[in-house]
Design brief:
The chain has nine helices and no strands. By secondary structure, the protein is mainly α.
Length: 168
């Protein structure tokens, strides 16, 4: 009876957050089909391991953690090497100034280590609170705060922003 109730809770959580779940998977793999595969695999893993969930109130963060881990597993198993044509090489060369800041931000986010990118994506793109991010990544809240601060500093340095002067 309890298992059925938890399964129903998981199903409603997935239905209510399906766009966010897909967007989270997509933020890791940058491919529609791979993101859909990750979502499908995550749902399967969640349904098969529903009895592991001890607190039904934390079902959203539990499922998001499954999605993140599945995406990271996928990236580890499918490291892809992309070939670049002449035009792409010119766009990435340092001699060309890019005027589109969103493209710079996307590129800079991709260059961040996964532990920092995950915190940024969950906090700012998925609009999660710090404690929710900590639950999803299975980390301490203070660790998440530190990683968020470090990630923002890295982004600032990589985006060639001048650090703000401290007020004394």
């Amino acid at each position: 009876m309890l298992k059925r109730k938890t399964e129903n809770l998981l199903t409603s959580c997935i239905n209510e957050n399906k766009e966010n779940i897909y967007r989270l998977a997509y933020s890791y793999v940058k491919n529609k089909e791979d993101a859909l595969d990750i979502v499908q695999e995550s749902i399967y893993k969640a349904m098969m391991n529903i009895e592991v969930l001890k607190n039904p109130d934390a079902i959203k963060s539990w499922f998001y953690r499954i999605v993140v881990n599945t995406a990271l597993d996928f990236l580890r198993m499918n490291k892809k090497v992309y070939s670049m044509d002449h035009e792409m090489i010119e766009n990435y060369s340092s001699g060309i100034e890019d005027v589109y800041t969103n493209i710079d931000l996307k590129r800079t986010l991709q260059d961040l280590p996964v532990k920092y990118r995950s915190v940024i994506v969950l906090r700012y793109f998925e609009d999660m609170k710090i404690d929710e991010v900590a639950a999803v990544l299975n980390e301490n809240v203070n660790t998440i705060k530190t990683r968020l601060y470090q990630a923002l500093l890295l982004l600032r340095v990589k985006m060639n922003d001048e650090p703000s002067k401290e007020i004394k």
